[in-house]
Design brief:
Blueprint: E1 2-3, E2 8-17, E3 23-32, E4 37-46, E5 58-60, E6 63-67, E7 70-79, E8 90-100, E9 105-115, E10 118-129, E11 138-139, E12 143-147, E13 151-155, E14 158-163, E15 166-175, E16 180-189, E17 194-203
Antiparallel strand pairs: 1-2, 2-3, 3-4, 4-5, 4-6, 5-7, 6-7, 7-8, 8-9, 9-10, 11-14, 12-13, 13-15, 14-15, 15-16, 16-17
Length: 205
């Protein structure tokens, strides 16, 4: 339904495709074209396969508000794991997720990192660059790996852009047997030099 006087659009089901090929599905959506505002229930945001989040990145929640392109999702869940019938291997669940379009940052408030739906880390605040950012300091997407010696492990990398030609990545890896591995990479690019230094430190239980 669209009211030409109030310029308010209402829809029980809505699907939006943006310029970056991200897809948003919602229920009970209201768009106020005067205020450039969208509010809706049960948002499901599927990021473009060309984004830096990977081919299966998606974000779901209970409610969404978009004002002038800035987005707030209540009780949101983010993961980039391949969809399956069970819970994803990892997900970030948060009371409130805010996408700051101007600064290109996604902020999480009261967030839990969950492994197979079990909370393992609590973050009062957590952030990472949005999928349009190619190079910016912040947390990178977590991953799960397996070692024959130490078993399953959670990798939670942090990327720091030192300058335009220098960056540093620290990747703590938390193993199920309580071992800890700190993997680090320093990169520097000059006119005739492309330098990479890798080193790691492991703490046994």
């Amino acid at each position: 339904d669209y009211n030409i006087h109030s310029k308010i659009f209402k829809s029980p089901k809505l699907k939006v495709l943006d310029l970056n090929q991200n897809i948003l599905n919602t229920d009970q959506s209201i768009i106020d074209f005067k205020e450039n505002k969208l509010v809706a229930k049960n948002p499901e945001l599927y990021f473009s396969k060309n984004s830096t989040f990977g081919n299966y990145a998606r974000l779901k929640g209970n409610a969404i508000t978009i004002i002038d392109g800035n987005t707030e999702i209540k009780k949101g869940i983010f993961t980039n794991c391949k969809p399956n019938e069970n819970c994803p291997p990892w997900s970030m669940q948060s009371k409130k997720i805010i996408h700051d379009k101007k600064n290109k940052i996604i902020n999480y408030h009261d967030a839990y990192l969950r492994l197979y739906d079990v909370p393992v880390f609590y973050f009062p605040k957590f952030f990472h660059p949005d999928p349009t950012v190619k190079r910016q300091s912040g947390f990178l997407i977590p991953s799960i790996s397996n070692s024959s010696g130490s078993g399953n492990a959670l990798n939670l990398p942090y990327f720091h852009a030192v300058s335009e030609n220098k960056d540093f990545t620290i990747s703590p890896r938390f193993f199920a047997n309580k071992d800890l591995l700190l993997q680090n990479e320093y990169r520097q690019v000059e006119k005739n030099i492309n330098h990479i230094t890798d080193f790691s430190v492991k703490k046994l239980k």
